[in-house]
Amino acid sequence: MMNTANKKNSVVLSAYLVFFIVHTNQTGVGIAGIQRIIFLEAGQDAWISIIISYIGMAVVVYAMCYILKTFENKDLFQIHKLLFGKWIGNIINLVLVLYLLAGLMAILLGYTEIVQAWIFPDLETWAIVLILLLISIYGVYGGIKTIVGVSFLGFFLTIWLIFMLVVPIRYIDWTNFFPIMEASPKELLLGAYKTSFTVLGLEMLLFVYPYIRDKHRVHIYAQIGVFFTFALIFAVTFVAVGYYSGEQLEKTIWATLSMFKIVQFPNLERFEFLAVSLWLVIILPNTLFMLWAATKGLKRIFNLRQKSLVIITSILVLICSIFFQKRANINEFVDIVGLFGFYSIFVYPIPLAVIVWIRKKMKGGVQTR
Amino acid sequence: MKKILMICLLVILNGCVNQKPLEELGLITAVGYDNQDGMLKGSIIYYEFDPLHPNNTKMVTSLAHTSKGVRQKENLASSRRLVSGQLRVAIYGEELAKSGIISIIDTLSRDSEVGTMSYLAVSKPQAYDLLQLSQESEDVTNAGTFLYDLITQNVEADSLLSPTLHEFMQCYYSEGRDPVLPLLNFKDGTIIIEGISLFQEDRAVGQLDSSDSFYLKLLLDPFEAGSTEIILPKEKVNEYILTSNNKQKESVYISLDHLRSDTDIKLLDKQTPSFSIKIKVKSRMQEISENYDLGNPEAIKRMEEAIGKEMERQLIQVLNKSKEMGADPVGFGNYYRAKVGYDTFSKEEWKDHYQNAEFKVKIDVEILRTGVMD
Question: Does the interface ipTM go beyond 0.90?
Answer without folding.
Answer: no
